[in-house]
Predict the structure of anthranilate synthase.
Amino acid sequence: MPHLSDLLAAVARGADPGPFALVRREGADHLELYAGPVRAVDRLADVPLPAGPAGPRTLALVPYRQVTERGFACVDDAMPLECLLVERHERVTLADALAALPDLPVVTTDVGFDVDDDEYAATVGRVLAEEIGRGEGANFVIHRTLRATVQGPPLRAALAALRRLLLGERGAYWTFLVHTGGRVLVGASPERHVSVDDGLIMMNPISGTFRHTGATPDRAGLLRFLADPKEVEELYMVLDEELKMMATVAERGGQVVGPYLKEMSHLTHTEYLLAGRGSKDVREVLRETMFAPTVTGSPMENACRVIARHERTGRRYYAGVLALLGHDDAGRQTLDAPILIRTAEISPAGELRVPVGATLVRHSTAAGEVAETHAKAAGVLAALGLGPQAPAPGRQPVVGHDRAASARPGPERPLADDPEVRAALAARNAPLARFWLDQRAPGAAGLPGLTGRRALIVDGEDTFTGMLAHQLGALGLAVTLRPWHAPGPLDGYDLVVVGPGPGDPGSATDPKMRALRGLLAGLLADGRPTLAVCLGHQLLAGLLGLALHRRDAPYQGLQREVTLFGVPRRVGFYSSFTARADADRLATGYGSVLLARDEADGAVHALRGPGFAGVQFHPESVLSPDGLAVLGELLTDLLPVSLPAAEPA
């Protein structure tokens, strides 16, 4: 391994070896060494991907601020999008790398979080009350950063930390060090954001955190964790959010595989895999999936606004991605992009940053989320000498490509193989929509009265509309998506769907509410077939004269069985507002409207009138096992089959 030896010798002499990266991918028995010049570009579309033989071409370091490419809000810290152009590529065996990397302690001073525990807890409380409680979204990730000063040469310290991560961490998707000249990033990210290989796009939502101190989690505690409603709902919500992204980049949306356990040295997570076929340029795939809901929240666009309101500093590279772009043997583009979490950034002056965040949902407590940020930092802190070292796993890191084996903590069987644990994981899929879990043959769900009809979906800033488009397409409709603020004709569409989105439907000043309210009023006046979903349903109910009410407890990521026009249905809700009524029928200027109400509080779950319908829940959600059936029934009523004219006698 001459190049790695030369590189490490230069570091030992105090010389700068030039930009390089060392990467161990999950289960691999080797590290990849990439070296070459670094170039900054403005946009993801500008990331170089030159033609050539099979192999990696560019390693891109994508900061969080790139969300501005999608028009999303952020605290802009001007961090550059840097690209390491791969001119030299070597493989180094894991054993050789461990022997060569420096085995020395990392000394730090001035250690502390930029936001202390009390201040972070107060922020958690504000987000729960002011954002989730007011309908701004289902979950949000708020970060804080542990800061310190590294004593001695920063690059040597990072290489020593990499060695300790390779020995002490397990279950990481990528364990890596990237040196650009202006910064060093070293970490062990558990989470693939997105990958593309042979036209197969994969994403990997991970959520739910079980903290432990031993090399193997406590079995009884793990089973309690797997049954905890907060942890279950947290994973379902990020699953829904990443399915929204897959709906944008994969031609038929994503198929859900899992769930699995992700066992690491200090934490155990639960995870799903999503897979779908697509043909987009990999840089466009990256752009359309900025960034994972596990590090931002949902709905994505409003999550960015909430983060910008409550985080006082920019995120730098936290929640961004490393993205390795290249080509395969057939010349097709490839992509592998882990999320930049569980990662330390070290400046040339020795300034250390370890950012961590917690996912806030309606069940969150301030104390619990404070503790979660400490636990998430523990693996990186241990490698840097800032926290307790995890107990030794009992042998060298496992090699090979078996997911369960790569997470094995020692000679004992991993808990992922325990029958009760496997049963608890499998049970998580029982209440979910089979539409997203099963293989779907094209046309299998099509309805004769809908096939070939055209639908327009108006997006209220929630990309659930992408999933809704796939379901309507499966029923046979040809679907067009349009943002709420984009003008366009309505003629030529058989159906207009006014979709979901965040915000207060009672607002008289919000431009989005005024625009959608005006759209619905015009649709009702013209008698155009209309379906309204979630926010659209609330606005429709208001136009029909129903009172809107903010729920005492938000229905964010909540699955319920409700009775819809005499039929029990299990569906998923993401809402903080609802319409209320005290009768099952409502006389309106647009005709008599039938309401499906909650017997307890009068909340209107759905409504049907002449030529229009509305649903408060999300039929497209993975939490709606009966969603496709509900859509089929409503649309068959809204778009009746046109019978052929009778032949003349």
The chain has 16 helices and 30 strands. The chain has two domains: 2-200+279-365, 434-638. The longest strand covers residues 547-564.
